[in-house]
Amino acid sequence: MNLMKELQKLPQDSLKIAITRMTWDELIGLIRPIARKDRGEYTERLYSMCCEELRNRNPAAWLRLEAELQNPWYKTWNR
Q1: What pLDDT score was predicted for residue 37?
Q2: Which of 70, 68, 66, 43 is nearest to 55 (CA)?
Q3: pTM for this structure?
């Protein structure tokens, strides 16, 4: 979570710019751990910003990712 610590240091405007410059894989790598935990105010805002960026880049892929985040494979694998 070193990236998370670096992002926390940024002001809001710079954070938005940093998120838009991140790759798809970097954004997913950032939101997956956040999606598995209870979120505080900052992490909720960061999570929302990343999700919005992913949704804007590729709506179809975002729908698949959103479904996975809501019902991850490790919870459904042994059903």
Answers
A1: 77
A2: 66
A3: 0.80
Cα 20 from Cα 7, distance rounded (Å): 13
Q: What is the pLDDT of residue 53?
A: 95
In Å, the largest CA–CA distance within the chain is 44
Q: Distance between CA atoms of 73 and 55, rounded to whole angstroms?
A: 21
Q: Is the pLDDT assigned to residue 70 strictly greater than 70?
A: yes
Which two tokens mark 6?
């670096």
DSSP letter string over 18-78?
A: HHHHS-HHHHHHHHHHHHTS---HHHHHHHHHHHHHHHHH-HHHHHHHHHHHHS-HHHHTT
68 compared with 77, residue with greater pLDDT: 68
Rounded to whole angstroms, the Cα distance separating 69 from 32 reads 7
